[in-house]
Amino acid sequence: MRILVMGSGGIGGFFGAHYAKAGHDVTFVARGAHLAALRERGLTVESPSLPLRLERVTATDDPASAGVPDIVMFCVKLWDVEAAAQQLAPQLGKDTLVIPFQNGVVSHRILQRVLGAQRVAGGVAHIPSTIKAPGVIAHGGGFARLRVGMLDRQRDPRLDAFAQAGKDAGIDVEVVENVDRTLWEKFVFLSAFSGVTAASRQPIGPIRSDPDLRAVLEAAMRETFALAQAHGAGVDAGYVDRQMQFVDTMPPATPSSQLNDLLAGNKLEAPWLSGGVAAMSREKGLAAPVHSTLYAALKPYINGAAVK
Fold first, then answer.
1. Each residue of 143-170: pLDDT tens digit?
2. What are the C-alpha distances in Å from 4 to residues 7, 11, 113, 149, 165?
3. What order of strands is seen across the sheet that includes strand 129-133?
């Protein structure tokens, strides 16, 4: 299988490496120091459960150099979705399937508009991972899974082949019937987790053990849950309670990717996370005071101002 990994950070780098290790033709699209390291030194995945080292990988900053892929793992940051989709469009074959693994619930709609609905599936990645250093992906352990599905809920042999190849490579990947619900389930948790960790500058341990921060985390989840219900996503009534139980099992030092970006002085995805919840809630006539406040607190750092 020929796989193009568009965005080779914590998600694309980790899962793409395992597909490459299993013998698939994987090309990593990256830039800057990360691209240089991939070309010169290969790719290292540091993980307590799924470590690996690839001495040589195919890496580029130009997807056109990779030929026509069977699958595109679309893993760029949310602010790059539109531009990356436009760059990718001319390189797709008639049977190429693009699977976005961004946070939030909007990237697949952008891709469908730019690339065509028949070329876009839905994807959800659950993994605590990041670029530790150029050419090095660090996985915090605990979980690493992909959930994929066609947005029209039909089976597709392209997606089935991708999932089976992932299982053969040792990846926890499943095809789900209702991927829209799966996207919203992650968004309920991730929008709150990313917002509270970034606004407080704390990983999950101090947040869950402090009654005030814990209450903010739960309230933020319930705001996004209400939005999911308004969108008819089918997230069940006990979901937030189960996620709060899950929070208590996470390694206490677990940060969100948004907290990592904030501390590194990188751009933030806040406009599509807490900002997105606030905006979509207004459209639905719902109140979202927690996410509105989290977004306002993060706005000064959205374009990459370092925290002092």
1. 899 999 999 999 999 999 999 999 999 9
2. 9, 13, 20, 18, 14
3. 52-54, 43-46, 136-139, 129-133
Q: pLDDT tens digits, residue range 9-23?
A: 999 999 999 999 999
Structure tokens at 45: 């995945």
Q: What percent of the chain has pLDDT over 90?
A: 95
List CB contacts of 88: < 8 A, sequence separation 6 or more.
Answer: 6, 63, 72, 74, 98, 115
pLDDT digits (tens, 9 = 90+) for 73-110: 999 999 999 999 999 999 999 999 999 999 999 999 99
Q: Which fold has domain 181-301?
A: N-(1-d-carboxylethyl)-l-norvaline Dehydrogenase; domain 2 (1.10.1040)
Please give the Cα distance from 257 to 292 (Å, whole number): 20
Poorest-confidence range of 138-142, 152-156, 251-255?
138-142
110: left (phi over 0), alpha (psi -120 to 50) or beta: alpha
51: which 2 tokens? 């470590």
Question: How far apart, in whole angstroms, are the C-alpha atoms of residue 119 and residue 301?
Answer: 35
Q: Look up tokens 């299993």; give the residue.
A: 22
Residue written as tokens 């969108």?
231
Domain with CATH 1.10.1040.10 in the chain: 181-301
Q: Provide the CATH topology of domain 2-177.
A: Rossmann fold (3.40.50)
Q: Give the single-character DSSP code of 254.
A: P
Q: Where in the chain is the domain with CATH 3.40.50.720?
A: 2-177
The pLDDT of residue 307:
62
CA distances from 55 to 39, 40, 72, 138, 282 (A): 10, 9, 23, 17, 50
With CA atoms as reference, report the closest residue to 103 among 10, 20, 170, 16: 10
Give the mean pLDDT of the chain: 96
Tokens of 198: 């970034």
